[in-house]
Design goal:
- By secondary structure, the protein is α/β, with parallel strands linked by helices.
- It is built from 19 helices and 14 strands.
- It folds into 3 domains: about 1-10 and about 285-494, Orthogonal Bundle (MetI-like fold), CATH 1.10.3720.10; about 30-115 and about 210-255, Periplasmic binding protein-like II (D-Maltodextrin-Binding Protein, domain 2, 3-Layer(aba) Sandwich); about 115-205, D-Maltodextrin-Binding Protein, domain 2.
- It is about 60% helix and about 10% strand.
- Helix 12 (about 285-320) runs antiparallel to helix 18, helix 16 (about 390-400) packs antiparallel against helix 17 and helix 17 (about 405-435) runs antiparallel to helix 19.
- The longest helix is centred in the middle third of the chain and has 39 residues, at about 285-320.
- The chain is elongated and about 90 Å long.
Length: about 500
């Protein structure tokens, strides 16, 4: 049995190393590239136009890369991850309407500031809110990690934090919250696209935007600042701004969403379907994201099964024989740590800390994170199944001259598998849904695909419903397959 255990552990480790090595050779290929991270839900600074990320920030960095003979790579991730991506070397520069603050200066270097902006209050047109004091005690929405978040927290109260400004505004439009504090330019975009909301004629606080660069990259900082000075001198900077804002700072070419009294519900739904999925082939975001979700889930399931099986065998063998104390101790630590921390935190630690200095495929990072997380739960499921098998089964096998390993493999595990199959199926379903947090590391999974559509159309209903229905269909199909497998196993017992 010890030989079997060690061989399986070795096989898993070798397989992991092979995957790791195949994904690591990206460091050399990244030469000649400028990697920018952003949160592309912040028009007019960064947003999707088809499959391309455009906006003031994106166009500026694109021009910087062009003038320095660099290929630009833009990665879209959660706003509160962009600075971490620069700090850990995952990206060269972060440009996402980032406000220059003293606290942030301690962590990263900022380029020359390129715009001054204001934090403003968005309310419904029938709202009685007239200023910051009248917001006290009301539900205030902000984008998590932004200056608006900091202002409301420090000066008013704990806000309701949303992943992006569009979700906060959608909550305002539907009456879930009373106000939204947001940067002035994106606020203008949202008000232009949504009937029934307005911006109060005051600025809460002024701020300056700049790009973020790692403190270990002074040469990159100097290059960006030099190029920005050139762009400002030759008028390129003004031309970029003119693409998205008029002379008064209002967004250009933003169609307002007006209520259409002459259309029925089904007609409006059909129009919304066309805008969200048909126009510009936006359905591709869901399809591509779905394929990434399936890839991550399938590989993570296999990895979780391998880890879980090995840990379960070690733990159950220790419980039954008292052997493998060291391995059992290590397995206990693994189970405690993994089951005691959220999967999204594990994903960020693996990406920014464990693989912080290595260029690794984000898909591989996600597979490792979810596989390791799932393995802890699978291990306890399998162990409970093994321990549920009557001890007389093991004694009978040993009395027939079978070794411990043979008895476990041929007698105990088949019975345990039948007992834990429903629980394993539930764990696989949970794993599938947990992959929805991949957007934190700039992976375009199914949920992120819906977010991209939502950021383009400013419509939360259909994109979110489409994502939910996709997950639901997959879960129902998996449940039916598991049910058929259970029935098949029951028939074989007769």
């Amino acid at each position: 049995m010890p030989g079997i255990i060690y061989k399986k552990w070795l096989a898993v480790m070798l397989a992991f190393m092979a995957l790791f090595l195949t994904s690591c050779g990206e460091k050399e290929s990244e030469r000649g590239k400028l990697i920018m991270v952003t949160n592309a839900t912040f028009p007019p600074y960064e947003f999707y136009q088809g499959s391309r990320i455009v906006g003031i920030d994106a166009d500026m960095v694109r021009e910087i890369a062009k003038r320095n003979n660099l290929e630009l790579v833009i990665e879209d991730m959660a706003f509160d991850s962009v600075i971490a991506a620069v700090q850990t070397g995952k990206a060269d520069v972060a440009a996402s309407g980032i406000t220059v603050t003293e606290d942030r200066k301690k962590q990263i270097d900022f380029t020359t500031s390129y715009v001054k902006a204001d934090q403003v209050i968005i309310v419904r047109k029938d709202s009685d809110i007239v200023g910051p004091e009248s917001m006290r005690g009301k539900r205030i929405g902000v984008q998590h990690g932004t200056t608006g978040d900091m202002y409301v927290t420090e000066n008013l109260q704990e806000p309701e934090r949303f992943q992006d400004g569009a979700l906060a505004v959608a909550s305002l439009v539907t009456g879930k919250i009373h106000a939204v504090v947001l940067d002035s330019a994106p606020a203008e975009e949202h008000v232009a696209r949504n009937k029934g909301i307005r911006i109060l004629p005051m600025a809460l606080v002024s701020e300056e935007y700049a790009m973020a660069v790692s403190k270990s990259r002074p040469e990159l900082l100097a290059m960006i600042n030099r190029t920005m000075a050139e762009m400002k001198a030759d008028g390129t900077m003004d031309a970029i701004w003119a693409r998205y804002l008029d002379k008064d700072g209002k967004p250009l070419a933003v169609p307002a969403v007006e209520a259409e009294e002459d259309k029925g519900m089904w007609a409006r739904l059909a129009d919304s379907f066309e805008v969200n999925f048909v126009k510009d082939d936006r359905w591709h975001y869901l399809v591509d994201g779905f394929l990434v979700t399936i890839e991550i889930s399938a590989c993570a399931v296999l990895m979780g099964l391998c880890i879980g099986f090995l840990v379960a065998v070690v733990r159950s063998a220790h419980d039954q024989t008292g052997r493998y104390k060291v391995l059992n101790f290590l397995c206990h630590i693994y189970l405690t740590v993994v089951r005691g921390t959220p999967v999204v935190v594990q994903l960020l630690i693996i990406y920014f800390v464990i693989f912080g200095s290595v260029d690794v495929s984000k898909v591989l990072v996600a597979i490792v994170a979810f596989g390791v997380n799932s393995g802890a739960y699978v291990a306890e499921i399998i162990r409970s199944g093994i321990m549920a098998v009557d001890s007389g089964q093991m004694e009978a096998g040993r009395s027939l001259g079978l070794s411990y390993g043979t008895t476990m493999r041929s007698v105990i595990l088949p019975q345990a598998f039948k007992n834990v199959l429903p629980a394993l199926g539930n764990e696989f379903i949970v794993l599938l849904k947990e992959t929805s947090v991949c957007g934190y590391i700039a992976l375009q999974d199914l949920t992120k695909g819906g977010d991209i559509i939502r950021s383009q159309t400013y419509d939360a209903f259909l994109p979110l419903i489409a994502v939910a229905l996709t997950y639901l269909v997959v879960v129902v199909c998996l449940s039916q397959l598991l049910k058929k497998l259970e029935n098949s196993l029951k028939k074989n017992e007769r």
